[in-house]
Here is the input.
Amino acid sequence: MNQNHEDELKDIWQDAVLEYRREAGSAVSPTLIRQLANIKSVEDVAAHLEASDASFASFRQTHQRLWTALKTFAAPIKAISKIAVTPTSVVDFGAASSAVLGAVVHLLNACEGVSNAYDWVEQLFRELQDFSERLGQYTAVQIDAVLRRKVVAILAVILKVIGRSQRLIHEGRFRQYLRVTFLGKDAATKKLVDDLNRLLGSEQRYVLGVTFASAQRTEEVAKSTHATVKMVLDAIEDDRDKKTQAGDESRLRNTLCGTSAQGDVEEIFVRNERSLLKGTGSWLENEPFFNAWMRREAIILWIFGGPGSGKTFLSTRITQLLKEKSLVAGNTDAVAYFFVKENSETLRDANIILKTLAWQIASQDMAFRRHAVAVCRERSLTITAEQTWENLFLGYYYGPGSQEQSAVTIVIDGLDEATAETRQTILALMRDLVSSQETTFTKGIQLAIVGRGSLRSDMDFRKLEKNYFIEVSRAKNRADIDKYIKKRLEELEILREMRKMKSSGVAKANKEGRKIMKKVSEGADGVFLWAKLLLDSLMKKDLPQVEAILANPPSTLDKMIWSVFDRLAKDEELDQQVLQKMLMFMTHARRPLLFGELDLVTSLPSRKPNYLLWKHTRGKLSSVFELKFPNDTDPDDQEESESGATGTEDVDKSRDSYIGGAESQTDDDQGFDFSSGSDDETSETDIHSDDDDIFSDTAHLVRAGTLNPSSKGEDDAEDAEDLLSHLSQAKLMTRVAFCHTRVRDFLVREGSAKTRRGGPLTIVPGADHVQADITVACLDIFQLEVSLKDNQRFLCDYPLCHLPYHLEGVDPMAIPPEQAARIIRGLYWLFGTRIGTTCLIRSVTNYDEFHGSRSEFWKLWVATDRYLNLVQSWLGRIEQFRGHSSRDDEAVAWMLTASKSLEELLRPAILTASSEWLCQPGFDSDTYFDKGEFAAWLINGWLTLIEGVTPLPEPMHYVHFDNVTPERVEYTASYAGLEQDVHWHTLLAWSLMMGYHYEAAVSHYRSAIKLSPENWVALEGLARCAGEQGQHADAIVWQEKAIDALPSSQHWISGYLWPRITEWATQVGRGDLAFSSAEKGFRADPTCILAATTYLSQLKNHGRSAEIIRTLEMLASTPVRASVVAYNSMVRLFVRGEDIFEPISWACAKEGRPRFVLDQLDKASTIVDSGDRDWIKVWLPYMAGCFKYSVYGLEGEGALLLETFLQRLSQKNENLQGQFAKQRKDARNILAQLYFDAAIEEWEADRSARTANADKLKQLAVEVSTGFGEDFEGFDLFRSDYPAMLWGRWLRDYKGVDEVKWRKCFRARLLEEMNTIDDDDPTNDTVGLTSLAVSLFHAGDKVNAAAIMAILFRLAGEGMEGNSNSREAQDPDSEDTSLGLRELKLEIKHATAYQCCNCAKNTTEVAELHVCEVCSGFVCWCEECLALLKEPRKRPQMTRQVCNPRHSFYRAWPVPADAMHVAAGSFENGVTVREAWLEKLRKYWWA
Here is the structure.
């Protein structure tokens, strides 16, 4: 054994000794250690105990069962003592085996005088027998280095467990594990076994790996020999062909292979093919357009990707697939390919490309070869690319007799790297090809063009681009890149050297490899070239060098990026200033930007629209930027579809768009009309002064709608809208990101002269004043007033959330004074003017129903005065920069005052917020649906800051004022001095009501009604107040008045009001009113969440299943009113987590299980999965999984969803896991049953194979990490739940393992269930007996399971077979005479609680009731429903698709007479269970 191995064994053992000493405590004295060092056997243990103290004098006789368990446990330890390690560092304990036995002595000493301690230690030794028995097995084989490590590891775990047990005895905590299994229940011991299993598993994999590597080397030698023979035979065949076809070959070669292109292309392909890993590009085969193209349903396939994204490997893979397809019998299609390279003039020429392709085709298609020979006789026919194409390609595939010819598929990679002339030539030929009316799909020419997205800018036939377009995204590429990295890491010299180290070398190499792989994968970020270059630099480096390179990637990566920007800087078609500004914001923005934000900011300050920016971003700039479309729908495709063009998803229908090609004319082709209209420039209208009276009491008129909030003239008010009018909403909301994270780092570094490494690039933005530039842009966007337009408010999100951070990064003295003055002017406008504060407050955006910028607004401008003080400091500099500002004296005076007074700074914002809260134009306005609670919270928060009170935390719900006194709410409303009109009282009352201040709210509601008796909001408020205080009848009256008072234009609001009446009517027992109100509410507004959920529930209560389905169909076709929601009303219910599965499940089972419900559920799941709400991402997979399984019988889909639920829940915090504890148990049980049933089917199909479902079942059954092969050497600790029992049933009934093994799967659960029967808690008797009966069925003990069923189902002597009130049925030999006839009184609920799972009839209504012996819980079927379950054609009629007809069933009703008194003692005055029966059962399962 080498020193490294010896040291590792010492480490393992020394750690165990230290852990034992920590657990056992100070009682482990040096003297005791010396005394125990010579204990070598269990006899030594007993001798030491009996000699140490009089109380142990008769230890073996007094504790006979304990002594038996101890001998069984300790015997293998004695046998292994000859090979145990004795490290010098732990010589005090002697041999490892002596240390363990010595610890046993110490443990038994600790039991003296502690009640029940000996019983528990006996239990402990029985549980540890598995570990000691494994040591005994090792003594029968030769002990090598690996086995020594296993032995020491097992002894170490035993020692630690004994130490842990001693601590539990000392603290008295051992009693919680009395009469239940200890290992696995105790978290500390569970971890010990888990770690041991991992160690044993790694050793096992190492041995298997060495064996496999040896076999693999032998196989490689054989393959090499075969390849050599094949090469020789191929060479002979080639030579024969050359001699017979010398003349034609010479002619073809001279014409088509006049350059090195053919050899270069072939070399590139072969090199790529060798580097191609198995599975590379597999995602492509899941793309609908790719599959359609492979079926020749399209002529051209476009594949676009960024630089270094692996496009060339993808082209190679496509070529491979095509070649494999061509090998199919009867397929004579040719395959040709070309790799264009920017650094080779030969590989960039159009004619050379076509001739090379022709040469490849000629080598595959003899008819084409003869045609090519004829063409090449005339040199003039192939001088230009156009001639070569027409004569060689079109002449053969579309000339006379072409219908008899074969087809060809051409792959051209990297066309974007060709010269501009070549690109235009090739693309023109392609355009003509698809325009030809003679073009067919099944024969002729087919192409795949792979390149960068900049090719878009070269194409003028958009329909081709639309229909067969695939983007190589980072997400699609990630798996391929990870495979590539893993393969390259196997070649890494440092890892290969580490693996040579014995024992731990493999583990350390794997660990280091995982670290490197993670860093390289994260750094690559979807770019193959990045990963390749980085790995190239690591190949021959030592570990410190590797770590240094990973921290600072090599400069070769930046050369690629520099070349991209150099190309763009030289492109005369691009507006370089716009591009530079675009790069500046993309580089220094604090989050990814939307295209609308970029387009808007690059149009400033000139305010001229960028009509071509979208096209350039998708084309020439695609090598720098990537786009993430809203809902993953291409806006260009969407626009063309909406304008009546061919759809992008229907592959069959899209054929016409190819045949039409360039001949089809769109609106863009209609020409221009320059003959009419005025050519005068629109003159700018005078802009209203920003210096209007900021304390004007007309601020509320903005909300009232009688004052235009814009500070600009009418012509300029739509300035921002004009700037963006050429872009659809989808384009505006498209997210833009750098194609690689390294690009941002490059621009930051190259933007500074101090850090720049390469030559200067004109388009790279400088870093000197970037924070000031972005600050000015943010303020300019505010002043465009986009926040006042609902459909553009989202464009203010970045300024709102990030302006303070950029402003904080600006040094006023380090920027030009004109720029500083501009910032001050912008801040004055934003905080000191009516229109500015309105734009600021209204800039709060809802991203969707669940996310918005309210929290960020609160954090920046309300929860702290940090950024308000920053604004004050800038305003205080107005005198310093006044020479560069046009502000008048009044504005300057306010700025100076506000710079010193927080109250003055906030006064304009508070006045505006007050009008947003308390002012309304009328009760017929849609704005009344927003009661202004957020504005009220802003005022309260700002007043808190002014008062110097501790800043308020962000409220959990802005609509609740429960932590604010009613007096404070009223003070907040009064601060602005607004007129206390009907709206003031109404909206103040609403806020009071939401804070549960009902008395104060009612007072203001009544004041409002006096001013306006038809005030529907106040009437609703009075109803809500009454309802919350239990005055349901009064609430109904007030709500009906509110509904009657609704203006006709606001009838939809009654959808929110009627459901409240349903709630209150239910409370007072008016069922008809409850239903009719729910129905009216839904009819008023089907999109209202409360209306929909209330109506569905009422339909279920009234048994209207068909109407539920019709209602769901209506919801599925009804769009949501909210603009932030892009899905229908039914999907919305699922996405919001509304509890509607009960009525939907019931109705679907009744009405034939319609497919559309599943479709809507799948849509909701997709939306939820892409979101970030933890609760719903856990809840929906669980509900959807249960629904699909139990209602539709979709076991596969249901299982997948439940697996997702468990996986996600395991990653959440303890609080969320606690909320879903019951669902977690239910999901595990359902999955266990599905795995079990599927494993049986797999086993019956092939009894020799290991089933995947059985492995899944075992994973659920164990508490610790496990292995799945029969040669697994770890230790399984089984859970005490349903999956563990199914695993035990599987081992017993299908694997035929020894009883001692499968019994372990039941022991923990059965012992816990037995404890519920004789504990001190009478409330768990029924549950305990029910669960015990199910478990005994699984354990194969039908006699005792039936005995419990008899107790549960007996109904006061009725329903029995015969009369068996005596105990004669009980076997007298089963009595435990030591216990006499003692009985345990139980509290058993009435048996009618058990009913059929399908028809819901109970025992008084059915002739028979059968219990499933396999399903979890108590799944019962009456005789008729059991017949339905077992008949495949009738099973769909059942309301629940649970259970399995192949399960075994026990007829529990009527109660069999022979089962009555097996367990039951008496049925008089309740039920008693004979204690002797219970103890016998417990003893059996502890054995």
Remarks:
- The first helix runs from residue 3 to 24.
- The two ends are 41 Å apart (CA to CA).
- The chain has a mean pLDDT of 79.
